[in-house]
Amino acid sequence: MLSGKRVLLIVGGGIAAYKCLELIRLLRARGAAVTPVMTRAAEEFVTPLSVSALAGEEVHSDLFDLTREAQMGHIQLSRVADLVVVAPATADLMGKMANGLANDLASTLLMATDTAVMIAPAMNVRMWEHPATRRNLKVLQADGVSVVGPDSGEMACGEFGEGRMAEPAAIVAAVEAAFSDGPLKGRRIVITSGPTHEPIDPVRYIANRSSGAQGTAIAAALRDLGAEVVFVTGPADVARPHGVSVIEVETARDMREAVLQALPADAAVFAAAVADWRVASESSSKIKKKAGALPVLEFAENPDILAEVSQLAEGRPGLVIGFAAETDDVITNATAKRIRKGCDWIVANDVSPATGIMGGSENAVVLISADGVEEWTRMSKTEVARRLADRITSALNS
Length: 398
Ligand code: CTP
Description:
alpha/beta, Rossmann fold, five-stranded parallel β-sheet, 15 helices, globular
């Protein structure tokens, strides 16, 4: 529930603005009060009358409104809330936020606020993928802005891809997580998840069967206990968890960069199935078939992110947890892996095809620490995640 909480909702000017009506309804149904702010462009998509009717409060939109400024200045307005939510966050608003521009009421409030800020981006897929948006997103994440979505799917403009605003229910879940007072409140945890893709040429890559399901479930479980989660994911099949900072990467080297940038952290969980090798010399053009000559790929070893972070002389997270995907002698191999890499715990599992674990919804794990070996019965990946999150909580709070 969100009783007693006030959300300053900034509605940006995109077609997804219509979803803010449902968002306001859901926030109020959960007990939150909503102070709505609209950009001029937002008013082209949804009327201030509808927004204020649902919010039960007047809409603020003008930076130079002297009457209102006398009643409540824009600085004060930026401070009334427990959380600022920008939905939809257009490419323009994200650009203003990332670069510190303040030329209308919405962007001025975002500069003036001392409250946590959450954005729900929404834009055309090309705009979302544009290097400028990528840059702005990185800056905003580094500034501590939390990001919900966007989702993939068909867009209002007729194109298909990533850029649809997260559904209002998902935004509300993220808002509730932001207010969660769980036992991991104030703890920052980095998680790697999914496979990595190692390019061979512009159209081909080496990958593995990891779906990202276990890492995603762990991120959600830690978020539900109040942790600030930085989720570094390769190109995984499953939807990204809501209410966490998501950093998308492709290769093992990108993943290493993102993890090192995300530190310091209280704990780090390495659930990703990182490719051990990459193609030594990636071809910049598509490798063509040649009669009688098969291509020969030479490999180079990828950085071992878990080993590097476990052995950091400075800034090592207090608790470092690795996974071990094994097909034979699970406990012996995983025990040796824990020592070799220098992590505190290893969550080992048998990924032989017959177990159906890789890509499936269940997992049967063995938790290996300096204290010994603990075999967990087969259970859903969500349950494994919950149990692991509880163990992490006990370890960090002991
Ligand atoms: N890992 C990593 N970086 C790598 C390889 C693995 O961070 N380049 C992490 C994984 O995320 C996992 C752990 O190390 O937490 C073990 O991964 P696994 O694939 O089981 O072990 P490997 O080191 O690859 O050993 P091997 O393939 O020989 O079993």
